[in-house]
């Protein structure tokens, strides 16, 4: 029988189903035109029910033939991640580690980022894929040192994630000058310095 190859190279559909596929495509475009012309769904409840059934069948069809997104593979990526000692930074490190990325993780809290490494190893991330650094993003020299260390360990950094950030939780009038300056250094100025370190 003649076959039609779908986006997934392992998925094939026998030509006997082509008429069915064409009918689905035709119904889809009719529904799309109906929605985009702004007609009232309440004026035609049969179309409303039919569209719900159609969408359900479409989901079943896509699932049946394996037309799903492939899991992203980051094995060729080198990610430099700041603020990886806790919270969102740690979560991102775990997600990217599970996807095979080489991780240069850093934080001003060295015990915290070392704990992140231990968690990654328990998750199954190879220790050879993890490089831990102590980084104070307020200090230009610290950024340069960590950037050089990361590049010498895993090579060119392909992804930079400026996750490190602070918040005082105080009103503007209650902030001291030192708090304002540090907030700007960590949350804004440091981004400029890290970007400059890794631009080709």
UniProtKB/TrEMBL annotation:
Keywords (A to Z) from UniProt? Oxidoreductase
| Molecular function, one GO term | oxidoreductase activity, acting on the CH-OH group of donors, NAD or NADP as acceptor
Q: Which InterPro entries match?
A: NAD(P)-bd_dom_sf, SDR_fam
Annotated family: Belongs to the short-chain dehydrogenases/reductases (SDR) family.
Segments traversing the membrane: none
What's the protein called, per UniProt? Uncharacterized protein
Note whether Oxidoreductase occurs among the keywords.
Answer: yes
| One GO cellular component, as annotated | lipid droplet
Pfam name, any one: adh_short
